[in-house]
Amino acid sequence: MIRYPRSIRARSSLAASALALVALAVVGATSSLAVRYRVQDDAFYHVEQIASQWSAAARAGTIPRMIPVSGDIRLIQLVDARGQVVAASRTARGRPPLSTMRPPADDRVQRVTDGRVLLVAIRITAAPDAPVVLAQRPVPALLSGHLLEYGLAGAALTLAAIVACTSWIAAGRTLRPVEAIRARLAEITVSDLSLRMAVPPGDDEIARLVRTANQTLDRLDGAVAQQRTFAFTASHELRNPIAGLHLQLEEALLHPGEVDLYDTIRSALSVADRLDAIVGDLLALARLGAGEPAPPELIDLGELAGREAPRAGRVPVRVRADGQVWVRGSRIQLARVLGNLLSNAIRHAESAVDVFVTTSTGEAVVRVADDGAGIAPADRERIFERFTRLDDGRRRDAGGSGLGLPISLDIARSHGGTLQAEDSPHGAQFVLRLPLIDDRPEQHAERVCAARQQF
Question: What parts of the chain have a pLDDT lower than 70?
């Protein structure tokens, strides 16, 4: 099993070297063939020039019986039609013909090589009995053996080594900031998220990576701080009713004759109900924070608001809907939002609660208004913080958890909408906005049937 290097630096250098070797191998093979062809062609051309010179002399009848030579061409012969050597150079004299080849009349010049020598045969004339000039020389030293290939291979390996070294150095310089980022991140712990990495100059990939990492750390730091605050506040909110319940039960045990057991049990049940409400709200927040997807469905907000509005209560609830207003989402979660808003409005209303379900520029809008004391502008953002309860709310309902509005806001955001407190002529007004769906259930069913019929 082949094991590849774990280091990016080593892998990049290895890949660069392999690519360089492949490219250099192709270039080397091509160069070897080109050089061999060129050197051999030049050598043949030189031999052909000498042979042509003595062929012309033979046609003129001026060729000597002892043909003078110079350079690398030592073997020259003039062979007649019977294969007899008529004239030859000193080295070729007394030898049999260098070749039995006789070029045809229509192609008087022929080149032949056996890998050791280069031979050129030239027919003097087109006549049937025309003699042939043969000239021969050794193959050039560059073409003998594999010296050329060895030289090219050595050059290719040298260049590949240079490429590997250069890639190693360049990768090291490129990855040096990444190693610094890794070392800096290793210093960051959950207990201390204040450390940040220095952003290198420029706008390259490394700089963008550092900026993104710092932004992620900022968000993580904020989330951890929010979770710590939430845990502290939740512990505080749970500790008070638990301490009160413990005190009541302890008093009943220590002074059984002086305590009304019925009142004690009823008070304990009231505290238990509050604890159950707080725990249920905490679980709902945890599910929303975990992003658990709810099965989407088409919901008519007007119909849902009518279902959630209590038929009888402390004050009447009037629901007014502009026809059918459709949204897509979780019916259970949106019902909880409307229930929280209605409960909050009924708690603070003096005489009535009004619910308006309308549409506006691609949005479904639900307004829940009461005629109570209202909410001060300075508190309209704060009331959506977890465990935040205004003095008027504590006075009207001491058992609330302070999580209803934060849960409603998280549900609205998970559905792509918003929830906020807005101005109202009388009392408070909460406005829920969700993406409007123009698709009616009947139209959706018709399109599904039409699509199935196409297949």
Answer: 1-6, 190-191, 226, 229-234, 236-238, 240, 274, 277-278, 281-282, 284-295, 312, 386-402, 439-455
Q: What's the pTM value of the predicted model, to 2 decimals?
A: 0.47
H or E stretch at 282: helix 261-290
Cβ–Cβ < 8 Å for 53, 79: no
Read off the CATH number of the domain in which 25 is found: 3.30.450
Q: In this structure, how many other beta carbons lie within 10 angstroms of the beta carbon of residue 59?
A: 14
How far apart (Å, rounded) are the C-alpha atoms in residues 208 and 175? Answer: 14
CA 262 to chain centre: 65
Core vs surface per residue 114-151: b (16+ CB within 10 A) or e? eeeebbbbbbbeeeeebbbbbbbbebeeebeeeebeee
CB-based contact 313:349 (threshold 8 Å): no
* pLDDT 10s digits, 213-256: 888 888 887 777 767 766 666 676 667 678 777 887 887 788 77
Q: How many domains does the chain have?
A: 3
CB atoms within 10 A of CB 275: 17
Whether 319 and 347 map to the same domain: the answer is yes
Q: Same structural domain for residues 120 and 138? A: yes
Q: What is the domain range of residue 284?
A: 205-289
18 and 131 fall within a common domain: yes
The radius of gyration computed from the CA coordinates of the chain, to the nearest angstrom, equals 49
CA atoms of 172 and 159, how far apart (whole Å): 20
The pLDDT assigned to 292 comes to 55
The rounded distance, in Å, linking the Cα atoms of 275 and 4 is: 58
Would 200 be classed as within a structural domain?
no
DSSP string spanning 297-357? EEEEHHHHHHHHS-SSSSS-EEEEE-S--EEEE-HHHHHHHHHHHHHHHHHH-SS-EEEEE
Contacts of 420 (CB under 8 A, 6+ apart): 380, 430, 431
Residue 166: inside a domain: no
Taking the C-alpha atoms of residue 421 and residue 377, their distance in angstroms, rounded to an integer, is: 9
- 25: number of Cβ within 10 Å: 14
| Residues ≥6 apart with Cβ < 8 Å to 140 | 39, 40, 43
Is the domain of 368 the same as that of 274? no
d(C-alpha 383, C-alpha 340), whole Å: 13
